[in-house]
Design goal:
heterodimer, A: about 300 residues, two-stranded antiparallel sheet, 13 helices, about 70% helix, about 0% strand, B: mainly alpha, cell inner membrane (chain A), ABC_transp_permease (chain A), transport (chain A), membrane (chain A)
Chain lengths: ~300, ~325
């Protein structure tokens, strides 16, 4: 928890800064809208956390999201009847992608950076090969309801986010979470004490794939169909997780802090917009803040040695 | 460390060939390259083309030069146990710096080249300092620097800018006999990196730091300086690639680096060449093989008129399969 504390302070500071610029921000509708906007990235960061804490990377989630949204649009093509089967298909596809990533990484011993980079190329190539370069079809209103609509005053995506967060916290408190962290901290020691490292890591990749599927369902509803919907999200998710104080290389950090990191990133974008910092400078400011945040985290807290050894 | 010892011994007694073959993964990639060339030759013959025609060979060299130069630089940082994700945006930036300073005049060329080298060395220095002094993981550090460069590019440019004089465009298009000037440039960069790694103190230290930074530090290597030097050299390579692309385009373009996907693609070429992503093992010879492999694959796709999206799929499969094979070999030996 000590390591996670800075990110909550930063998040609180950013929220206060937003509230000063826009007094309505802390009222329920505006705040819920903010959470709704942040939900896909937070869910994605939660999934990425499982992979990173186990000592690996998942670079394929961005193109997986694009692939899922494009597939959903093509298969549903506006028909309400197809909505639920396609939703199930998307979830299965996410899990399957994670299973392939995990199996190739653990059984074939390919570094996960390369496995998931290959998966990124394969997914984005295959999906555009299938659609011929431009996404076709349309999502049904029922599908989009999940990303856009709300139950009473609370958006569906906020409810889904709450469910995902609860599930992630439970998973990390259970035996699975402990073995996952042990595998990420020192996989040899974990293996010698009876952890099935390959299996635990594969499950982590499947969770990441699942989180990408859920994020894709929300983003498809929220933003609609485009070929750029998932672009760059893998880097944003990794950044969010690292902002939350989770060590690249595995074994350190909490899932709550990772999700707080994603909220912080989203709050940062909101703040930059509010202060009228044009779209062009936004990436530069983001870059400076990411480096600064990670550097501060690294200096003030005990550093893990030889993290890159694996 | 065994790699380093091997190289040292090679330096004392070995011939050029023995040294190359000491780099075992590099041999694997050249075997694969030879097989692919035979396959390409067969496919071209069936398709009614000539694989070994001058036109095709020049095409392969032209296509691979820019990626090759970046990948050589990337090899140095990866060997040192780091990583550089900022090269793509840096290439765009340096192409613009070059084209704007030249502004179509021959007299501007020396100043432009000097400015590009200065800009890229500075970016490399910043990368290296963030990684070593601020202790930020290279993945995040160079990603952050990439975002900063992107912000600067988005702010200042909407499209191509500046212009390159005719005399400088010779770099991109001329050739001496069957060999394009750009390929010679790539060969020169690769040869100097190879000399650096196999003959100089800095080269040995790069292997030592990448192999085990703590052991290197305890044996008296100033690890931080080595990592910084590797980053500076990598960025300078990206700057040279930016110059080459500017001379091809006749102008600077803010998207030339990212469109080419030079960041991830250069890392892919390096690991295809058998260099370990964790650092300390591998070399430039393998990287050159990896880049050529990708380029030959490309030319086969072009001849067969395969959809460009299918290329990505095959590339992904080749990349993962190659790494799986390397992992298997390493485990059995």
């Amino acid at each position: 928890m000590r390591r996670a504390l800075p990110i909550f302070v930063v998040l609180a500071g950013l929220l206060v800064a937003i509230a000063i610029a826009n007094p309505y921000f802390l009222e329920p509708p505006a705040f819920l809208a903010f959470v709704k906007r942040a939900a896909p990235l937070v869910i994605l960061a939660a999934g990425q956390y499982f992979v990173i804490v186990s000592g690996e990377f998942d670079l394929s989630v961005g193109s997986l999201i694009t692939a899922e949204v494009v597939i959903a649009a093509r298969l549903i093509d506006g028909s309400a009847a197809a909505t639920w089967p396609v939703l199930a298909l998307l979830i299965v596809l996410g899990l399957l992608t994670g299973l392939v990533n995990g199996t190739v990484t653990t059984l074939l011993r390919v570094p996960s950076f390369i496995t998931t980079l290959g998966m990124l190329l394969i997914l984005s190539g295959a999906i555009f090969l299938w659609t011929g370069g431009a996404p076709r079809g349309a999502l049904s209103p029922q599908f989009r309801e999940l990303g856009r609509g709300s139950l009473g005053p609370v958006p569906w995506s906020v409810l889904i986010l709450a469910a995902v967060a609860a599930a992630a916290i439970c998973a990390m408190r259970a035996g699975f979470g402990h073995t996952l962290i042990a595998a990420g901290d020192n996989d040899r020691a974990a293996a010698l004490s009876g952890v099935r490292v390959a299996r635990v890591r594969t499950v982590a990749f499947m969770i990441s794939g699942l989180s990408a599927a859920v994020a894709a369902i929300l983003l498809g509803g929220f933003a609609g169909v485009s070929a750029q919907v998932g672009q760059g999200l893998e880097f944003q998710a990794i950044t969010a997780v690292v902002l939350g104080g989770v060590a690249l290389g595995g074994g350190r950090g909490s899932v709550v802090a990772a999700m707080a990191g994603a909220f912080t990133l989203e709050a940062l974008f909101t703040l930059l917009n509010l202060y009228g910092i044009s779209g062009a400078v936004e990436p530069a400011v983001q870059g400076v803040i990411i480096i600064a945040a990670v550097a501060l985290g690294a200096v003030s807290l005990p550093r893990r040695r030889a993290a890159a050894a694996s | 460390m065994t790699q380093q010892l091997k190289l040292r011994r090679g330096g004392a007694e070995g011939s050029f060939l023995r040294r190359l073959s000491a780099d075992r993964p590099a041999r694997a990639v050249y075997v694969a390259l030879a097989l692919l060339i035979v396959l390409g030759w067969l496919l071209f013959a069936l398709d009614g083309g000539r694989f070994l025609s001058q036109e095709n060979i020049v095409g392969i060299q032209q296509r691979s030069a820019a990626l090759g130069i970046v990948a050589v630089g990337q090899t140095l940082v990866i060997l040192a146990g780091s990583l550089d994700l900022s090269v793509a945006y840096l290439i765009s930036l340096t192409s613009l710096v070059a084209a704007e300073i030249m502004a179509g005049a021959d007299g501007g060329v020396p100043a432009a080249v000097a400015a590009v080298l200065a800009v890229s060395a500075t970016v490399g220095l910043v990368n290296g300092l963030i990684v070593t002094r601020l202790r930020v993981h290279a993945f995040i550090a160079t990603l952050g620097v990439a975002l900063i460069i992107r912000g600067a590019l988005d702010e200042r440019y909407d499209g191509p800018a500046g212009s390159v004089p005719e005399s400088f465009q010779h770099l991109g298009y001329d050739r001496i006999g069957p060999i394009p000037v750009s390929a010679l440039l790539w060969a020169a960069v690769a040869a100097s990196a190879w000399l650096l790694l196999s003959r100089t103190r800095l080269g040995y230290r790069i292997y030592a730091v990448g192999g085990d930074a703590e052991v290197a530090r305890l044996s008296g290597v100033r690890t931080e300086r080595v990592v910084i030097a590797a980053h500076v050299l990598c960025s300078v390579c990206a700057g040279i690639a930016g110059l080459l692309l500017a001379s091809r385009l006749g102008a600077g373009a803010p998207t030339v680096g990212t469109d080419g996907g030079y960041d991830l693609e250069s890392i892919a070429a390096v690991v295809l060449g058998g260099t370990a992503l964790a650092g300390g093992r591998g070399g430039v010879a393998g990287t050159v093989g990896g880049v050529l492999l990708l380029a030959v694959l490309d030319s086969i796709f072009n001849q067969l008129e395969v959809n460009s999206f299918a290329k990505d799929v095959v590339r992904g499969v080749v990349l993962v399969a190659a790494l799986a094979i390397y992992a298997r070999r390493r485990r059995t030996t």
